[in-house]
Amino acid sequence: MAGAPAARRKETRQDRDDMTESPAIASDEAAAHARSEWCQEVLNTAPDRFAAGRQIARRLGAIVEGDRVEFGFWTPELQDWRIADGDVFLEILRPRGEIDLTASQADVTFDRTLLPVCRTEGFTFAAATGLRAGNRDEIGDFYALVWRDQEGALHRILDPLASSLPYGAFAPAEIYDLNAMQARRQDKGYFAQVKGDKPHKFPPPTSILQVHVPTATPGGTLASLTRQFERLAARVGAGLTLEPDEELFAGYDAVQLLPVEPTTVYEAGPDFWTDTESDDEEVTAHLLRPDTTNWGYDIVISGMATVNPVLLETARPDELVDLAAVLHNFPRYPKMLVLDVVFGHSDNQGLNALNSHFFAGPNMYGQNLDYHNPFVRAILLELQRRKVDFGADGVRVDGAQDFKWWDSSTQEMRHDDEYLREMSGVVQNVAGVDYWPWFVFEDGRPWPQEDWELSSDYRAVIEDQKDLDPDLFQWGPLTFAHNTPFIYTFWLSKYWRLQEILKRGSNWISGTANHDTLRRGTQVNPKLNINTRLGDTKNEILDKAYDNPAVSILTYAALPGVPMDFLNATARASWGFIRNQDDKYGVKVVAEEAISLKWQVDAYSYSVPGAFRWLKEMGFETREDLARFLEFLPALVEVTEYDLNTIATLLNAVEPPLAGPRPFTVGTLKQIARAWMDDMHEYCNVSHSTSRLDPVQTNAMRRLRMFRLNNPWLRDNFRDDDHFRYLEPIEGRTVFVALRNAPQGGEVFTVCHMEGCETEDIDPLDLLPDSVSRNDWHLTIRGPGIGSDYTGGPVVLRDSMGLVFTRGLDITHLAGEPH
């Protein structure tokens, strides 16, 4: 990005300011100098550099304060490179004329203003008046820090703490008025009711709906998801009968979003912001609306304080606040908003967005973060604080076992449990109310040690912080990635884990259907010992395995903890590793995902008009065409050790010839990989599955969630008078029975046929412990597959059937969603 003042006379910025009567942009050097002196004072007087960093981080980014905007950057690289103060500027980019952030592409000319800065050690500050701050209705000025090299070229340093990134984490940020956004939020009363003399601590929810925003609704945006919950709230409030697709969202009191942070961009381009012409007074840029598809976890750390623009219908981060408000204002049972944050690693692309001081070396995902750099540590916690201040009641921390630091004294990586404590100790403030959110950690240490499935106790963070927060949670053993409930003997093989859940599962997330388990399920070899009783086709088997009535009854009516369901699983929609940004390894990723075609896509689904349109355009007109290609590709990736040129040559030699673009080249292989990802992303959208939903299934599962919601005591561990066992002798089937005793009086008895052949004609109440009376029990929930005329007595139980009996409990709420 070179810059030299143009020699010709042209319309000046002052001319344009005079015509528009907008205030001129002016540096407030006194404010910048004062902030710089304040920074030095903090560095000099704070107990240590981390304490100083915590204070200074609150002033980083672009902060709107009345008519003035203050800017702060952590720029140790400028010290490393010995860049003089006079060669560092705050760059303000004001679009000339109207700009539509939602347009697919545009060439936009910006007026550029370069303002002086003040520097203190590794921090750079600036302040200015006359700037436009963005809000829901108006677009703000864009900004970055720039420095000039010896050839006169300007180089950008982007703001990792930006509040709005309409063109992603690798482009200039938008000045955004967060105070205005917070002032307009519609859930202030929700927070006001918990305001006290000390920060409020949000308790755990009763059950969680996990949602991947881009595949949750036809629109694929936060605004579209908000409208879904607005409609549900209106219908629940009016006491209307819910349709099957609405029941999928009902009965939960928490919604957890997969990460909504900006993610990686296209490795081989195009960039979403490309300067085409520039000098010291103007910049012309080619702009593309971000359109990457991603499952959410390929983050670059930079931009974590705001929202991925791909998820924004309006390009305004207010959409996340709107969703929080609709959930918080839900009739009778407000729903918590839980955000999934990823601070355990950065994709390698993060090296292009952040200075090198953020990183501690490569790992299997990309880059480790340097948690022991006090300023990195402080900035990461500040990013977390700002994100959760959008209005989340809960936080789920991805991959907590990956938060590590190198101990040079022992020459090993050690878990940074102190940092995890600092994460859960961050105080949030929304609508003037201080609070601590509910925290969940995914931590499977000693993963990735080979014996982790056996040796992990899933309690490392719980035990470390139990004295600080008795309500802190972890993902439980049946929720972690590698669970495959469609393989025969799964449930008996996991019985020892179930025993652990009974005794100590009160602080575990439970259930087997989440984004990780469903993805792993699609990667299982179909030739293994698959439970064919779940369905007649591989599609049916996979769908029922992760939306299994017996598993849900076990989870919601018997087991401790907080159940969680993944929307794509309960909708019986597809899911997988969907990321279309890869260039170098995209073909390899598709080869690894190829087996999912066998599990999730049949000939009919492939033939539907509009489905798999990109692959069809490339010559894979039928599923058979694609399946044959995907039989060869994984094998060739393995035997050639991923030599794309050799793979293309060998594919061209196959007889009879493969379908697809001819001839195969490295370029066409990469195009096929991109088409696969884009088509699968569209195929996974829940809206494609709603017409096939079984109303008996969706209604039974909603009633089950309402049962749990009205019996929150079920979260607690089993007591001495509770019972759990499997039916013996086994005789080719696994049937679990459980008796729970409510503290206030009343009992819940469940019978769940998990897998195997059918039972003989049995009376479920005969399976009660001998000391428990068989009288006065009421059949409260019957799982799908059991006729509506059954109210008790002998019954034949088959795979996936389940029953819930109660005694002495109020069950009137099960008539429908409360309103």
Structural account:
The protein is an alpha/beta fold and 819 residues long. It has four domains: 13-183, Immunoglobulin-like; 200-264 and 299-475, Alpha-Beta Barrel (TIM Barrel), CATH 3.20.20; 586-683, no CATH class; 719-815, Sandwich (Immunoglobulin-like), CATH 2.60.40.1180. It has 28 helices and 32 strands. A hairpin with a 4-residue loop joins strand 20 and strand 21 (412-415). It holds the Pfam family GHL5. Residues 1-30 are annotated as: Disordered. GO terms for molecular function: hydrolase activity. Residues 8-19 have a biased composition (Basic and acidic residues).
Mean pLDDT: 95
Helical residue percent band: 25-40%
Please report the distance between the alpha carbons of the first and last residues. Answer: 59 Å
Number of strands: 32
Compute the gyration radius: what is it? Answer: 28 Å
* Order of adjacent strands in the largest pleated sheet: 12-13-16-19-24-25-26-27
Total domain modules: 4
Can you tell me the residue ranges where pLDDT is under 50 for at least 5 consecutive residues? 1-10, 815-819
The CATH architecture of the largest domain can be named as: Alpha-Beta Barrel
Total count of helical runs of at least 4 residues: 28
Name of the CATH first level of the largest domain: Alpha Beta
Structural shape: globular
Which helices and strands, and how do they pair?
Blueprint: H1 13-20, E1 26-27, H2 29-45, H3 49-57, E2 61-65, E3 68-74, H4 76-80, E4 88-95, E5 105-115, E6 118-120, E7 123-129, E8 142-148, E9 154-157, E10 173-174, H5 178-183, H6 188-192, E11 200-201, E12 208-211, H7 213-216, H8 222-237, H9 244-247, E13 254-257, E14 273-278, E15 282-288, H10 318-328, E16 336-341, E17 359-362, E18 367-369, H11 374-388, E19 394-397, E20 404-407, E21 412-415, H12 417-424, E22 428-430, E23 433-436, E24 438-441, H13 452-455, H14 460-465, E25 473-475, H15 490-493, H16 495-504, E26 508-510, H17 515-521, H18 538-545, H19 549-557, E27 562-566, H20 567-570, H21 586-593, H22 596-600, H23 603-607, H24 613-617, H25 623-639, H26 644-652, H27 666-683, H28 695-709, E28 723-726, E29 733-741, E30 747-756, E31 778-782, E32 802-807
Parallel strand pairs: 11-23, 12-13, 12-27, 13-16, 16-19, 19-24, 24-25, 25-26, 26-27
Antiparallel strand pairs: 1-7, 2-3, 3-7, 4-5, 4-8, 5-15, 6-7, 8-9, 8-10, 14-15, 17-18, 20-21, 22-23, 28-29, 29-30, 30-32, 31-32
Helix pairs in contact: 2-3, 3-11, 8-10, 19-28, 21-25, 21-27, 25-26
